[in-house]
Design brief:
The chain is α+β, with helices and mostly antiparallel strands. It is about 30% helix and about 15% strand. It is built from 8 helices and 4 strands.
Length: about 190
């Protein structure tokens, strides 16, 4: 028997037992808790298909039927703009939500802050993910006066520019032309 299997025999699904424990837990069920699992669809760290397979396996093991098929959800910056595809959502019984965020990598709130905020806001409010955010959350607010000016910041002093030294390129056998000076050795 290979040594590796003595110490570690799981290679794909890591969180299945933990998720099953949570979803079967009395407190989770009695308090009607909900779980949101989301991934960026371009995430190269936690591929969204691997997570989908994990959640589907957990749902199968717990006999959690789908409450809704995989369906698109939409982001809308404000009522002045058209909706745009934000990803896909699949909901299982037991309040288990599986969501992808279109165009996002591993750090969804950093890569797609608008759709991430709308998704989390709507999930917490227990409403459809495609409902736009309240205008008060999307309208920009002016900067506080104490942060508006840079009057108190000292100007950064930089040394004056100086020319780079030149390097004479060696003569290459068979070339009659003189080579030009090359400054690339001093560039990053």
């Amino acid at each position: 028997e290979p040594l590796n299997t003595l110490y570690y025999n799981r290679s794909y699904f890591e969180m299945d037992e933990e998720l099953k424990f949570i979803l079967n837990n009395y407190l989770y069920k009695a308090n009607d808790m909900r779980m949101l699992i989301y991934n960026g669809d371009t995430d190269q760290v936690c591929n969204h298909l691997g997570d989908q397979w994990l959640i589907e396996e957990v749902a199968d093991d717990l006999s959690l039927l789908r409450s809704s098929k995989r369906q698109p959800w939409y982001y809308q910056l404000s009522s002045h703009y058209e909706r745009q595809l934000a990803g896909y959502e699949k909901i299982f019984r037991g309040n288990l939500h599986l969501v992808t965020v279109k165009g996002s990598g591993h750090l969804v709130p950093m890569d797609r802050p608008g759709p991430a905020l709308q998704m989390i806001y709507n999930f917490v409010k227990n409403q459809a993910l495609s409902i736009g955010l309240p205008n008060s959350m999307t309208d920009p607010t002016p900067l506080k006066p104490e942060y508006a000016g840079l009057g108190t910041c000292p100007e950064t002093a930089y040394p004056p520019p100086s020319p780079l030294p030149t390097i004479q390129m060696p003569t290459i056998p068979g070339m009659e032309e003189e080579t030009e000076e090359d400054h690339s050795a001093f560039e990053n």
